[in-house]
Amino acid sequence: MPSNVCLMGKSLHILQHYYDNVKAFFTTRYDLKEYVLQIGISLVIGAAAGLGSMVFHTLIECMRFAINPSHFSRYLEIPSFVMAIVPVIGALLVIGLTRLFPQQASERGVRSVIKSVLLQKIPIPLFTTVFHLVASAVTLGTGAPLGPEGPSAKIGAGLGSYISSLVRLNIRKMTTYTVAGAGAAIAAIFNAPIAGVFFGIEVILLNDLKNESLSALMIACVSADMVSKAYLGNVSLLQIPKFQVNTHEVLYFILLAIVCGIIALLFMELSHIIKKFYKKMRNDDTIVILLPLSLLFAVAVMFFTDIYGIGYELINKVLAKEFPVNILAIVLVLKIIFVGLYFQTGAYGGLFAPSLCIGILVGFLFASMLSFFGVTLDPVAYAIIGMGGMLAGLNSIPITAILMVFELTNDYRIILPVMLASVISHLTVTYYNKGTIYELELLEEGIDVRKSRINILESVNVQSIARKDFQTINAKAPLKNALDKLIEAETGLIVVDDGGGYIGILSLNEIRQALLSSDVVELLICQDIVFHVNPCSIRDSAAEALKRMDEYGIDFLPVVKEDKVTAIVLYRDIISMYNKIVLQIEERQYGHFGL
Amino acid sequence: MSSLLEFTDSKFIKFLKSKNKYKAIEELADVFKGTDVCSDIKAFINALKEREEIMTTGIGFGIAVPHAKLESVHKIAFAIGISKKGIDFNSIDGKPVHLVVLVAAGERQHKEYLKLLSKIMSVLKNDLIRNEMIEAKSTKDIIEILRNAK
Predict the structure, then answer these.
(1) Is A523's CB within 8 Å of B57's CB?
(2) Predicted pLDDT at B65
(3) Residue A285 shares a structural domain with residue A218
(4) pLDDT profile of chain A (595 residues), mean per 10
(5) Which of the residues A280, A405, A428, B64 has the least number of beta carbons within 10 Å of its own beta carbon?
């Protein structure tokens, strides 16, 4: 007995010793504490992004099930064509939501997440995240032919940034968890954790493999996928029948990859044309076009119900060989056109799911068409390969595409052809476009991510620094009237015609020469010395406005909308904004607040 | 600024016959025809007339300075028109105009344009010079007056 007591005492002593050592280890090693916290926060953010995605998924599924034209008509015994009106109701709701919350609606999809990360426009307000969850669920739940990944990434990124702001992390860390949240949401929505990680790397981080967000991204994706699996079960989105892959068909794999690349390029070209057309119609407010577009879509849905919605049902039907080839071809064309039309209105949805759908159709058609020439290929296998090729080509994500197809099929045999298809299709697109779809979209907004650094002013919109307090003068007014106004004006004057239309500017520079002789002032009217300056629009970047002011040697620039001056931008406001941003970035990166 | 003579030529000086201000502008602007000053005289005349319609360039003391900046003007220059009988220019002092100085400048010659107008005004402000020009008998006399003007 005494020996037992002695043994117990010895054991307790050893345990106490180990406890002290462990405690000392954690309290003295700050790095370790930070790593443990990083893992913990990543797990929480992953779980939150996973939950957010599941809520989003459930909302879409409920709406899809409840008001799907075919389901609804079955229950209410009304013809399906009546229910084709659902996308129109959805469009009305989406337009209403966008109008009600223009600020929250202004930044949409994956591109906005990349921008937030690149420009460190973080934290993303929680209300913005909730808004995108609802608006996207309405868009996709009422049949818009887009995908849930863009909104999911937005929701995940929003939750990541919100949670990290709650624990008062600095901007660098917040950016890390914003990326982690975006990837985690993709992992959850597609039930594909590895694809989620590579989505974060290829899309959000723009292939920056050295980025410090990587470990957080991986942990968050695992955590999100656990939530997704717990909610959805181990069920794949797609029901893939048995298929046969023959490695000796490598030539056909390559041919299909090139076809996918070309179709991706055609889609991008079509998208570009649609975008230009929309801008011509409604420069600043393309979402309004959603209403006539949804009417057109409703008509198409009456004849081809399968183009309704995200497209998973269509994919499963195609794989189950439920369609004749001619119908498939029509559905493919309609799908491409409507995805392009919807995407460019700024509707809330992404391109991943449509890419999968278009890829399945292309691959299936490819194999079926070749059979007419005596080549026997398994259309199911080629549909899956096409899915990878199209996903990679259209979204410039070859690795994500390979892994996503693998995770969706759970079949290792498909890896080799999908790798070929994804990489070749991606190369075809990037060779022609000289950049990924996201890089090109950001370039249109003045953000060139291909440069080693981002020009800060390219990310600042003229709108954020424009002033409404400007003075105008009629071109026909005598110059002496302008002199009186100039004394009161902070900058120069805007010269307008009788209808208030913009003509040019009068700055002190112009006037100074005229003041050389008082008789000249008597002789001149404003029109005589107006400086015809090419104005900027509210959507231009501050960098563009500054460049223009430098060219003309002026210190302010009018902001014109439809020939009328709506505001002015001052040179000094741009410079002060630049200094402010530089200071903010420095403070955020090296400030001493938070972790 | 250098001498005014750098911006004119004896070919650009004309004794005007027109009594109407628009006709006088047309008559005087025609001196630039076939020169390297302006490639589109019609557009130039229209611009001068439009400007005149907005507000008279008759600044009093028998002087009018019609002027226009135009894309088709390639070289800044001025022409001088003398009307012995006088032209009704709706001048601010209501008196007829005897001396018309027509200034042509390119769209982007903003500074030069104002400097030239300023120089012309400062020369014409001198009563003696102004009267000498109105009384001049030949283009040679005008050139000589401008040469001596400081």
Answers:
(1) yes
(2) 93
(3) no
(4) 62 72 60 77 91 88 72 61 77 86 76 71 78 88 85 88 82 81 88 83 72 80 89 75 83 92 90 84 71 86 83 87 86 91 85 90 92 86 92 87 84 87 90 75 65 62 86 88 79 88 83 71 85 86 84 87 89 80 59 37
(5) A280
Two structure tokens written together for A333: 């064309």
Per-residue pLDDT at A448: 64
Q: Are residues A130 and A268 in the same domain?
A: no
Provide the whole-model pTM.
0.59
Domain that holds residue A513: 460-579
Residues of B in contact with A534 (CB under 8 A): none
Q: Nearest 5 degrees, angle CA A473-CA A475-CA A476?
A: 110
CA distance B51 to chain A (A): 8
User: Which helix (H) or strand (E) is A560 found in, with range?
Assistant: strand A556-561
What type of residue sits at position A559? Answer: V
Say yes or no: A477 and A376 in one domain: no
Domain count across chain A:
3
Nearest CB among B110, B114, B125 relative to A519 is that of: B125
For residue range A528-554, list pLDDT tens digits in order: 888 888 899 888 888 888 888 888 878
Predicted confidence at residue A592, as pLDDT, reads: 37
B69 touches chain A (CB under 8 A): yes
Question: Do residues A429 and A464 both lie within one domain?
Answer: no
Q: Is A238 helix (H, G, I), strand (E, B) or coil?
A: coil
Same domain, A279 and A423: yes
**Residues of B belonging to the active site:** 67
pLDDT score for A531 = 85
Interchain contact B130–A (C-beta under 8 A)? no
Q: Which residues of A touch B121 (CB under 8 A)?
A: 517, 519-520, 523
Contact A417, A260 (CB under 8 A): no
- Shared domain check, A415 and A476: no
The ipTM estimated for the assembled molecules is 0.85
- Asked if A208 and A96 sit in the same domain, the reply is yes
Q: Is the pLDDT of residue B39 over 80?
A: yes
- A250 vs A256: CA distance, rounded Å: 10
Determine contact, residues A286/A345, Cβ cutoff 8 Å.
Answer: yes
Dihedral sign, CA of A345, A349, A355, A358?
A: negative
In this structure, are residues B81 and B65 in contact, taking their beta carbons and an 8 Å threshold? Answer: no
> What residues of A are in contact with residue B122 (Cβ under 8 Å)?
517, 519
- Whether residue A589 lies inside any domain: the answer is no
CB contact under 8 A, B51 and A519: no
CB contact under 8 A, A519 and B122: yes
The CATH code of the domain that includes A64 is 1.10.3080.10
What number of CA atoms fall less than 13 Å from residue A35's CA on the CB side? Answer: 7
